[in-house]
Amino acid sequence: MEHNIEIKGVNKNYGKNQILSDISFEAKEGRVTAFLGPNGAGKSTTLRILLGLDRASSGSARIDGKAYSKLKNPLTKVGVSFDGVGAPSDRTVYQHLRIVAASNGISKSRIENVLNITDIKHKVSAKVGNLSLGEGQRLGIATALLGDPQFLILDEPTNGLDPRGIRWFREFIKGQAKAGKTVLLSSHILSEVEAVTDDVVIINKGHIISKGNLNTVMKGLSSLEDVFFSLTDGSGYNG
Question: Are residues 141 and 168 in the same domain?
């Protein structure tokens, strides 16, 4: 059995307004899937439904065949970096990671591993509120990696990273896919998405408007950015 993320026929209504319409796609094991869309397209709502933070009006969102809410010790199966670090500003980096690890039955020995992977070991005693935006992103990724999960769901993971950090992320995420992990990410830096992704899903106004492997989606255009703007009417992209 492959370890995939499957979203099938998801609809979401707020009153009379339909936010999502028949959203269906897969993120497959051993591949990086980029989920892209303009501001307000429905991307964040879809991810929130996948992570059990919101409910679909109909349809299903499954990780390894199960709803996120049904996973026991979810961080050991799904690593998520979404909506910031999610820690009090006066908590240290180590304290944050220790609390998250303990809540999911993860050995504290794993903390040093993820700090080394994300290259923020030197910030272990720093308070979360004193981290730069890029350091906060690395901490978010470190938190996602604590349980050595099969699935990685990363929202705007390169936001705030400097060129060195972006280069690190590029090699890191390729390595995760090569190791057989299932990676679903969103990013507004389309050139970086193009450099790392295998498959692309583009959502606009609550509808999937294109999906498939990168070469198929690009359809001979010179860049993923050209594809994006041609499909979304040049409406601008804000993640």
Answer: no
